[in-house]
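User: quick one, fold this
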Amino acid sequence: MVDIRPFKAIRYTSKAGDAEDLITQPYDKIDPEMQKEYYQKSPYNYCRLILPLEQNKYEVANERITQWLKEGIMAKETQPAIFVSRQEFTLDGKKYERTGLIAALRLYAYSENTVFPHEGTYKAPKADRLNMLRTVQKDLEPVFLIYQDQEKKTIAFLEETAKTKPVIQVTDSLQVRHTVWVVTDPEKIKQLQANLSAKTMVITDGHHRYESALAHRDEMRSKGNWTEDSAFNFHMSYMVPVQEEGLVVLPTHRLLKEYKLTPEVLEGFKFFFEVSEIKPTVEAIETFLKNHADEHAFCVYDGSKAYGLTLKHDKAVYDFVNANVSKETKIFDVVILRDIVFKHVLKTGQLNMDENIIYVRWTKAAVEKVDRREATIAFLVNPINAKTVAEIAQQHELLPEKSTDFYPKMVSGLMMMDISASEKL
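Assistant:
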């Protein structure tokens, strides 16, 4: 049973300045250059909390929150609320709207079959976010989840709420328009809770945050003196129906740092794939992927040449794939890429994020990183759709790390949630 609660949000006040100078992309999307830009935007920019430049970043973040609350830069609401949040954006010339709700979602161990992950995680980011939680005792960024709403009851609630006056309207650096409405009416909240109670949730973004919050919850419980209403049993979450038309998933391309496209590697590919040389341009790569969207297809680029790879319709290939690839998830390109291309042909072994593999959202950015020699080879993939992600997660199957990119991200800085020991929901 899904338990969501309203919470007393901590938000910026008008004293903080223009909201566009305060909000940021999520902490794991902020590179060093963006970090510096955010710092220059405002002395109160949210990057100074989620990803401080200073060495003792956890303590610095905590001191800043305390100071900003004291100075009235931020303030905690007096009334518990849930929020409706909408993102309006343009992608490839087409306009989209994605609407969901922000509330405190009770934390469930994956074994409880209420909240499901859809991809694996790394230890280092979890340790980092756990240290941040321990120190600041706040949920600084939401976890992003999806759920089924075939009867469209929550969709109707979202649409109705969006007719009222918003409390936040801001455009981020990617030209995404974020609008937030507040709901405090106890009867409306009760109805929403009832409509969501029988649902299951699938994490789309924020697996590291969610798992860190579970670890933090267990630590807090081990100290005793807690109740089911203690705020640390919950996490601030953004929840979107799978039926929402603006639920867009982008591909996440893989860039390797230590491997090269040698003639031997190309020969290795040819056992499994039809290999065709294509123009080494962004346009040619994207065209190839689009034209092979219904097949297991990739593009590979090494700075001078590009090739299109399409899995062969061949018994020997299928037998190998069936024997060496995860049963439920072998239908996914990213799984075939990991288990056949990386493990079998390239013999990569364990790949560690940022150390020997980089994940990139846009084809152009992937190509540029190889051109700048930040990586030696790029593997470009097609996206997975949201409905399939939800279905596979609920079969207890995990995709490889960073398999999906639900776009756009929820910006950080719209609100935070207090999870200190004394806070109740």
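User: anything notable?
Assistant: The longest helix spans residues 207-222.
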